[in-house]
Specification:
globular, single chain, 234 residues, 6 helices, alpha/beta, 30% strand, 5-stranded antiparallel β-sheet, Rossmann fold
């Protein structure tokens, strides 16, 4: 069931009637406005703009979605591949003009190396759980050229938990790591199976990178606990 991809295709084909609704294990309901997934560079958050400006060489856009980041890079002379495990996303990217795409899970994609791996819109979330982060970073590292870089943004969602009087936060015992969230998506009458998604505070990302012999640099911080990081070989 490709709920995300169907929403993208419907919008591109002029059949936009509803947005994507998400339900999370944090007892929150949210909406992903489908038009936002087709945004131009000028309407992207500053962290995304900065990441695109830092790209170099041959770029792999991981979780390319509707292809907005790939299109910007392509239009600015970069060789870029848009990768997504949603067939609808890949079809939409092609229809919008992304020249090179791959329909695959990043963990199944091998035997190519890139100057830049791009994971925007919290692309590191694909790792799912903190326990899977080391293997995920090991795989990404295998796709990097010697002077390559991984550019990713994420958010520290500690702000979503109640604060103690001493400034700490109360986190229920049910969490192995507070950034592990389970989501379900709904579009029109279709609802996805639950899936795991990972939000990382910068210190946890930095420690995981160090364990994988990667240098982790904080490039810039957003206005609401979000940040852009760059990982490179040590």
């Amino acid at each position: 069931m490709d709920i995300f991809g169907q929403a993208l295709l419907d919008y591109h084909n002029g059949n936009y009637t509803q947005d994507i609704i998400t339900y999370s294990s944090l007892d929150e309901e949210d909406i992903i406005p489908v038009p936002y997934l087709f945004r131009t560079f000028e309407k992207m958050p500053l962290l995304e703009q900065k990441a695109l400006e830092l790209c170099k060489g041959h770029v792999l856009d991981i979780g390319c979605g509707a292809g907005s980041h790939s299109l910007y890079l392509q239009e600015n002379g970069y060789k870029v591949i848009g990768l997504d495990n949603s067939i609808g996303a890949i079809k939409t990217s092609k229809l919008r003009g992304v020249e090179e795409t791959i329909h695959a899970s990043i963990l199944d994609f091998k035997n190519q190396k890139f100057d830049t791996l791009l994971l925007l819109m919290n692309g590191i979330g694909i790792a799912g759980k903190l326990s899977g982060l080391k293997d995920f970073l090991t795989h990404l590292k295998s796709l990097l050229k010697p002077n390559g870089q991984i550019l990713l943004d994420s958010s520290d969602i500690i702000y979503m938990f109640d604060a103690d009087d001493d400034g700490g936060h109360w986190i229920p015992d049910t969490f192995d790591y507070y950034g592990e969230v389970t989501f379900t998506m709904q579009y029109c009458e279709q609802k996805s199976n639950p899936f795991s998604w990972l939000y990382l505070d910068f210190n946890t990302l930095q420690n995981a990178a160090s364990d994988n012999a990667l240098h982790c640099e904080l490039v810039s911080e957003g206005e609401h606990y979000d940040y852009l990081a760059r990982l490179t070989h040590l």
